[in-house]
Amino acid sequence: MVSKINKIISWNVNGIRAIMKKNFMEFFNDTDFDVLCLQEIKVHNDDIPDDIKQFGGLQGFNNYWNGADRKGYSGTAILTKVKPISYETKLGDDRFDLEGRIQIMEFEEFYLINTYVPNVKNDLSRLEEREEFDELMRLKVKELENKKPVVLCGDMNVAHEEIDLARPKANIGNAGFTDEERAGMSNYIESGLVDTFRYFYPDKTDEYSWWSYRGGARDRNVGWRIDYCLVSKNLKIKDAGIMQEVVGSDHCPIWVEL
């Protein structure tokens, strides 16, 4: 029985039903981790199939599903070998809480937050809500850090710096690369969180976690790094990485080792 968490993986699967019909079981069985955070599971809380609800149980994982009220939309899930001390799914605003966008788990050494940050949409119609979400999340992190360090993982839906996307000049002001979204990520880091991938690989290029399905973007590696593991500065980390070789979704998994 695992008593301590070492490796955390985060992955936007773009539909748990869809990816379970692809290579997800192979990934799950062949990959070593203690916690798996999933985003955009697209299952509704009231009709999660039993095979999904019970998934991972035989392998020793505790399953926690937080679907959106709206069917086929958003949602998060955590599979963990270590049972949490406490668990909650509220940020404090129904606009986000009813979309299943957050899970908070307390473990012995830290809090884990799994999140699926709202997409501002191509017309930026949800930009103001996105900024409000970022601020609520930042305040939640600071609240939790008064007790223990925090690990914040998930699809943050923003490329922070120009190095984090293949074509920065062409995307200035576009969804995922607006000044406001980038400032939101800067606020997390300036308030004390560490971007674990950039901590170890500050100058590494061509490392992305999302690719458009259009135009063969993934084959040409025309991507964006919009998935992150952010951690409190006082939490010791060994390494972090991006699993670009793993397919099945328009995102690939990312990981951090504590």
Average of pLDDT: 95
**CATH homologous superfamily placement:** Endonuclease/exonuclease/phosphatase
* CATH top-level class: Alpha Beta
For the largest beta-sheet, the strand count, sense and barrel status come to: 6 strands, mixed
The rounded Rg comes to 17 Å
CATH topology: Deoxyribonuclease I, Chain A
What order do the helices and strands follow? EHHEHEEEHEEHEHHEHEEEEE
Helix fraction, binned, reads: 10-25%
Number of DSSP strand runs: 14
CATH architecture: 4-Layer Sandwich
Measure the end-to-end span.
18 Å
| SS content category | alpha+beta
Please state the overall shape, judged from the principal axes of the Cα atoms: globular
Low-pLDDT stretches are none
Describe the strand arrangement of the main beta sheet, using strand numbers: 3-4-2-1-14-13
Give me the number of helical elements: 8
Strand content: 15-25%
Number of self-contained structural domains = 1
